[in-house]
Specification:
The chain has 160 residues and is α+β, with helices and mostly antiparallel strands. It has helices spanning 20-32, 73-84, 112-125; strands at 11-13, 44-51, 56-60, 90-99, 102-103, 130-135, 138-142. It has a single domain (11-159), classed as Cytidine Deaminase, domain 2 (3-Layer(aba) Sandwich). Strands 1, 2, 3, 4, 5, 6 and 7 form a 7-stranded mixed β-sheet that branches. Bound molecules: tetrahydrodeoxyuridine. Tetrahydrodeoxyuridine binds at residues 38, 41, 43, 45, 61, 63, 70, 72-74, 108, 110-111, 114.
């Protein structure tokens, strides 16, 4: 028997410690929470993607009375970015969540389905995505791409 351990590396930044580009991306994710349609959860999530050409594309969660028909902010944003800018790799993705009249103090990590979509976006463009998760008490920055958050991945290589 061999024991195998996966570790997850991320950094905790204060907003003031972020570089200008990262601050802009986080600000865009915060702003995007305002476009959220979340009448059921009242949990308003915004995401912003930094494209290879420097453009920032943002999106938010969109809920539906038939609950599973809704979509998270991360996937809304990634699918929109890929649909509108299919030739642009995604370099970074920032996420912020607003509920009960304020942004969450602890960063909201992406759900499993969004992690799976991030994996395929990374593979499509051969480019790891830096992930910035905003909380009022600090920002988690995952430098190593989605592999840090999604070990033992299922991907297209299994289908060949
Ligand atoms: N949600 C996101 O948009 N992203 C996350 O990372 C976590 C959850 C949304 C889905 C749903 O509209 C609401 O937050 C409550 O789960």
């Amino acid at each position: 028997m061999k024991e195998i351990t996966h570790t997850c590396h991320y950094k905790l930044y204060a907003y003031e410690e972020l570089c200008e580009t990262d601050r802009q991306l986080v600000d865009a994710a915060k702003q995007a929470t305002q476009g959220s349609y979340a009448p059921y959860s009242e949990f308003h999530v915004g995401a912003a993607a930094l494209l290879a050409d420097g453009a920032i594309v943002s999106g938010s969660n969109q809920e539906n009375a038939a609950y599973p028909s809704g979509l998270c902010a991360e996937r809304t944003t990634l699918f929109y970015a890929n649909a509108a800018h299919p030739n642009q790799a995604i370099k970074a993705l920032a996420v912020a969540a607003y509920t009960n009249g304020k942004f969450t103090n602890i960063p909201v990590p992406p759900c499993g389905a969004c992690r799976q979509v991030m994996l395929e976006v990374e593979q499509r463009y051969h480019q790891p995505i830096r992930i910035l998760l905003y909380g009022t008490e600090g920002i988690y920055v995952v430098e190593g791409g989605i592999g840090e958050l999604l070990p033992l991945t299922f991907d297209a290589s299994f289908l060949k």
